[in-house]
């Protein structure tokens, strides 16, 4: 397995997060990340959703920061971690995974929010399969390791999830058998 780009080795302190999608789940994670002291760049193509996020997320007095943008390119420009909140269907996921892979710096870890799709298959469509993980947000955050996901990537994503006050469950992706 290849390792994560060196700037992540031993990364401490606030992370810059690109959250793609300002729906309920994206706003909820943004609020938790801001409370944890992280910098959040929240993206949505619908300005009304971004206005809702600004109205809904209490920013005053929080240690983190929130910026809203309307393009994926602006969201991922400086991201340590990019998390998508697009519908859990193959075409939507492929489109956003490929877009983030193209636009984000090499250091960026891509978290694919999916219950139904194979993380390894999606990660293999990128140039950063070692920096891709699956995430599921419930009472706990489930982090799914793809076949090529590096230990450094897993450690970073687990630490981020815990910093937001979440219980974390780690799973290896089950191989598909026919």
From TrEMBL:
<dbReference type="Pfam" id="PF02737">
    <property type="entry name" value="3HCDH_N"/>
</dbReference>
<dbReference type="InterPro" id="IPR036291">
    <property type="entry name" value="NAD(P)-bd_dom_sf"/>
</dbReference>
<dbReference type="GO" id="GO:0070403">
    <property type="term" value="F:NAD+ binding"/>
</dbReference>
<feature type="domain" description="3-hydroxyacyl-CoA dehydrogenase NAD binding">
    <location>
        <begin position="17"/>
        <end position="166"/>
    </location>
</feature>
<dbReference type="GO" id="GO:0016491">
    <property type="term" value="F:oxidoreductase activity"/>
</dbReference>
<dbReference type="InterPro" id="IPR006176">
    <property type="entry name" value="3-OHacyl-CoA_DH_NAD-bd"/>
</dbReference>
<dbReference type="GO" id="GO:0006631">
    <property type="term" value="P:fatty acid metabolic process"/>
</dbReference>
<protein>
    <submittedName>
        <fullName>3-hydroxybutyryl-CoA dehydrogenase</fullName>
    </submittedName>
</protein>
């Amino acid at each position: 397995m290849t390792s994560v780009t060196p700037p992540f080795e031993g990364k401490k302190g606030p992370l810059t997060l690109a959250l793609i999608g300002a729906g309920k789940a994206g706003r909820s994670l943004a609020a938790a990340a801001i409370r944890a002291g992280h910098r959040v760049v929240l993206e949505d193509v619908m300005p009304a959703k971004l206005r809702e996020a600004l109205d809904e997320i209490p920013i005053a007095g929080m240690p983190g920061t929130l910026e809203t943008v309307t393009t994926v390119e602006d969201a991922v420009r400086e991201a340590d971690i990019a998390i998508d909140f697009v519908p859990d269907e193959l075409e939507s996921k492929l489109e956003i995974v490929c877009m983030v892979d193209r636009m984000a710096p090499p250091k960026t870890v891509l978290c694919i929010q999916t219950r139904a799709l194979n993380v390894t298959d999606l990660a293999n469509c990128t140039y950063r399969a070692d920096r891709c993980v699956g995430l599921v947000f419930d009472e706990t955050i489930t982090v799914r390791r793809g076949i090529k996901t590096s230990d450094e990537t897993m450690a970073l994503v687990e630490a981020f999830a815990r910093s937001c006050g979440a219980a974390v469950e780690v799973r290896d992706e089950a191989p598909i058998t026919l």
